[in-house]
Amino acid sequence: MDTKVTLPVLENNPLFAVLTPEERMILQRAATIVPYGKHQVLYKPGQAANKVYFLLKGVVKVAVHAEKKDIIKYVVRAGNLFGESCLTGEAQRRDFAYAMDDQVEVLEFDSNTLLAVMKNNFAFAQSLLHFLGERLRYTETQLEKVVLKDSKSRILEYLHQMGVEQGRQVGFETLVKHNMTHQDIADLTGTSRQMVTAVLNQLKRSNVLYFNRKKILFRDLNALPAVV
């Protein structure tokens, strides 16, 4: 493996910052950099859960199938871990992950090697447990929104979250370049594609934002909570 590529990742990411140089080398030897094209599947239900993935480049969707549609559990962006359920005892995949970009690059770790390093480095084990806890809290929050909030509020909150997390300031406006379809947003928010389209068109007519297939330009991102 190319150490010029992997070592900065293992040194700079908070998840791996507590590793010793020897432990980083152990993980590096057990890891592989794998490229994926758009829509290519990384793993699917029924496959052996023996790898943990760290996204180097692009965007990956993790979802489950239900009633002939996808329910998106979460969207992974560069610098984040996914497929970590094998660290908690899952032997087979129950969900699937696939690339949302043309050029996705993933660092694939052998799960047994990660578990061995966790066993010998308590701080690293704590780091991963914290990550798992954050993901669980995110899932619980999404479930609460589905139960307690109406469809429009969930869509508006997701749009605001996109602006905060992915937005770039352009004067007084906020630009988000993305690859999410209306169906993707619907799957993430537990709504319908028609509802997402209706909400976006309403916001566009009200000049709260402008959108096309690849970007959303928020005129005033702070106006969205007021709309909610």
Explain how this protein is built.
This protein has 228 residues and is of the alpha+beta class. The protein has two domains: 145 residues, Jelly Rolls (Sandwich); 79 residues, Jelly Rolls, CATH 2.60.120.10. A hairpin with a 2-residue loop joins strand 9 and strand 10. Helix 6 crosses helix 7. The N and C termini lie far apart (49 Å). The mean pLDDT is 88.
What is the element layout, followed by pairings?
Elements: H1 3-12, H2 21-29, E1 31-36, E2 41-43, E3 51-57, E4 59-66, E5 69-77, E6 81-82, E7 96-99, E8 104-110, H3 111-120, H4 122-148, H5 151-166, E9 168-170, E10 173-177, H6 182-189, H7 193-205, E11 209-211, E12 215-218, H8 223-227
Antiparallel strand pairs: 1-8, 2-7, 3-6, 3-8, 4-5, 4-7, 9-10, 10-12, 11-12
Oligomer status = single chain
Q: Under CATH, the topology of the largest domain is which?
A: Jelly Rolls
The biggest beta sheet is recorded as: 4 strands, antiparallel
The helix content, as a percent range, equals 40-55%
CATH architecture of the largest domain: Sandwich
Biggest sheet, strands in spatial order?
1-8-3-6
Terminal residue distance: 49 Å
Strand % is: 25-35%
Rounded to an integer, what's the Rg over CA atoms? 19 Å
Q: Can you count the beta strands?
A: 12
Uncertain residue ranges: none
- The H/E string reads HHEEEEEEEEHHHEEHHEEH
Structural class: alpha+beta
The CATH superfamily of the largest domain is Jelly Rolls
The gross shape turns out to be globular
